[in-house]
Specification:
The protein has 86 residues and is an alpha+beta fold. The protein has 3 helices and 5 strands. The protein has helices at 36-44, 51-60, 72-75, and strands at 2-3, 6-7, 25-29, 32-35, 65-67. The strands form 2 sheets. A 3-stranded antiparallel β-sheet has the order 4-3-5. Helix 1 packs across helix 2 (51-60).
């Protein structure tokens, strides 16, 4: 079903049956979480150069961005965010 401004996005939201630990970054669209790279590719017709590019582009557009954390991310945090002794 087309929208007034063009074709509507019909990307299904993320689902636990298709969860992958290599897909950590998601954007909230309405009530659904969408993997950032898939969302940007669907919206623009071009695969982004990387997850960071997709995440930053969607953040700049005002989409809430969330990270799915597991394992060491929950217990120790992101390695780049840890305080290092000097």
């Amino acid at each position: 079903m087309p929208c007034a401004a063009g074709p509507c996005l019909r990307l299904p939201p993320a689902h636990n049956a298709t969860f992958s630990q290599s897909r950590a970054w998601y954007a909230l669209v309405g009530t659904g979480l969408h993997y950032v790279a898939d969302l940007l590719a669907e919206a623009t017709g071009t695969q982004p150069s990387g997850v960071e590019t997709a995440r930053l582009a969607l953040d700049a557009l005002g989409f809430p961005i969330v990270c799915w954390a597991w394992g060491d991310l929950l217990t120790a945090g992101h390695p780049g965010h840890r305080i290092r002794a000097t």
